[in-house]
User: Fold this.
Amino acid sequence: MAEAVREFTAIGTRPIRPDGVEKVTGKANFGADFSLPGMLYGKVLRSPYAHARVKGIDLSEAKAMEGVFSVITSADFPKENPSDMSCNILAREKVLYHGHALAAVAARSQSIAEEAINSIKVEYEVLQPVLSADAALAEDAPLVDENLRTNGDESFMPSNVAATVHYERGDVDKGFEKADYIVEEEYRIPSAHQGYIEPHACVADVNEKGRASVWCCTQGAFEVRNYISEVLQKKISDIKVTPSEIGGGFGGKTVVYVEPVAVRLSELAGRPVKMVMNREEVFRATGPCSATVCRVKVGANKDGIITAAKAWMAYEAGAFPGSPVTPGCMSIFAPYDLKNFVIDGLDVLVNKPKVAAYRAPGAPQSMHAMESAVDELARKLNMDPIDLRLKNAADEGTEAPYGPKYPAIGLVECLKAAKVHPNYVNKPAKDVGRGVAVGFWFNIGMQSSAEIWVAPNGAVTIMEGSPDIGGSRASMCLMAAETLGIPYDSINAVIGDTESTGFCNLTGGSRTTFATGLAVVRACEDVIAECKRRAAMTWDLDTEQVDWENGFAVPRPGVNIEAEPLSFAELAKTAGRTGGPLVGRASVNAQGAGACFSVNWTDVTVDRDTGKVDVQAFTAVQDAGRAIHPSYVEGQMQGGAVQGIGWALNEEYIYDDNGVLENASFLDYRIPVASDVPMIDCQIVEVPNPSHPYGVRGVGETPIVAPLAATANAVREVLGFRINDLPMSPPRVLEALDNAS
Amino acid sequence: MSKVHVELNVNGQPEEVLCEPQQSLLDLLRDELHLTGTKEGCGTGDCGACTVLMDERLVCSCLVLAPEANGKKVVTVEGIADQNGLHVVQQKLLEHAALQCGVCTPGFVVAAKALLDKNPDPDETTIRYWLAGNLCRCTGYDKIIRAVQDAAQELKATTTS
Assistant:
């Protein structure tokens, strides 16, 4: 293929990330790597029951123990109107899931802290747990929260349904009348965990005047500051949060678990307190994603036009309201131009850990249902699955099922690119099944700020607040290099703490390269404006008579002056004489994040003796708007694909009848390892986002959406029948084979 | 509980440490020697983030009791680069953008270097199985495998030229 003409100098290149050396030599400091002199170790006591009333807690032995400095329960948190987060961090009257925290200690050593935790005596009245959406929705189901009324409506009786969601358009009954083919199925997916390799960790140090300093691994330092403030009712100006390097999050580090506990323990102990979760705690007590039940009915006429679609879904929220059922409902039909549809969703409480965001929260489950159903429609129609999707694909101007009209989006471009991709044109061998699915995520903008500081030698520091979870420093430096017209190597990006950089929302929603990137570009433009002003002063011109070209201030064409262009480096060197150091700043509340679509297909084999599914090949095509650093865009696509494959084939929370998680380790909750997967082939499609100066749209979340159904559709092709529920683990595949024979 | 005296060599340096008998080699490295490059992802030997070399064998340092390391030679991620700069495995991981969050990277660096020391010409399957004890949740392994393949090529080129 001919090399396209490059519009850009820096953007689209693949330089080494600025924080790279520290990360391959072990020098980068992650959450658990920070320590302070005199530091204590905090530990948490967790509930052995999934649902129980706490009748009494006896802390006396722990408090009297040599080496123990502070012991707390929820009684040591502010008493009035506790938030769900507060009650999740330390339980109040009831423990609501196995592993729910209800007391914490700080001690001189980890072993003393453990001994102290073990000495705490709790009297429980064990209650019947509610362990699935089905059980929670049953008549006479025990109530997780006796005061919960659906949608907060006091006219309803208490129930386990926290909220309902509804979208509709057109007339579905008439739409189904026009259908020649209808598929109607139910799909179930258990909870999966984000599975970041770094457990949650923090150090808190509260001084004698109540000022708290917190070091932690988080997707958003400013959010941590807000949460600590809410939970402990402390002023935000009394809390400073320094984000460490972060060892993965995928949505799971957008909330807090140990940080407010460590702050309170430190406050009472008068010493810094470090808390590091172990892996078992991460599995038992931090956000998995919702277990879901989705029912989909979809009809098409003989030409392959979808005439109507209907969906009902129940998302488990865990012990507190707030599953991502709304985005689940909003995304299920997002790739399609539908005239008639109805979508209903329920947010359901169960006695399991409170769910947290997980990469495209809500979308993988609901879209697995729709993309499986569309695959069955294609079979009934005897139509290529990409052709069927092209006939119904949303495009610019299509009214999204959730309301607004799409601006420029890249779904059709991705489908067309897939159709002619060599990996798609080459048909799979006998006994190899191929499955196709599309993925989607909304993406978000939100608030970011950035500063640019220019050193006298022309080197640039970008100060920003988005924790770098996947190479975003490199993207910031590339956008700055492009905008300023200076070399990438002369730029560094620094992630500030909450007192050294302006407010910035979390790294999440695929927003960082888009929104923080926008702030960086605007801050660079601020520096350029200043550079032009300084050059104009030097040349005795008006600022309007100066242009900025490829890193040089130049007199605007037609301005009659003999002047050598002034380079960025020269302007930086002389800044002391022309008005002081060069700095730029910008803050944005970025609008128009731009939806991101993808097409994935995979070729699989199934071992009929063991039930094991082997992924032979996987290809991801995705619209990046503009790939700033293509390697890190591919990295998102490849990582999301493998997470999705893991979810489709192996990963699930397995509970016993008492609500105890039976596989709370990486041995038993098995995420994909290197030998489980093939290379993940990527093709980046670029349909620029009109709301970003370089056309960026977020790419981080969409990649996990399509692999679930793509894998399920491939297994369907090999087996000759469909397994509706995930994961398609060896025992489940064997069972399905047994039932089929 | 009385402490145990442990003498070992870490990255070429002799070290003496007093540690609790139940402490792991990982705790000794991180908490006593402040070598925090070796990470704890699970504490049960399932994730490989704590991979180090002990007497030239790859081990999960979370599964080795600190007193067991007495008299042993340990190499951690901090001991892979030298005065000449990064090891080729480290350099190739960077060039291939083979890390995203980077918390699993120290384990991969130690494990991949050990592979190439033993087998200078591994095929893709060999690399995948050798690294199957190291979990990465970000990359899907693609770029890590390519980086190790590229490192092997480069090592071969430098030894034959």
User: Anything to note?
Assistant: The first helix of chain A runs from residue 20 to 25.
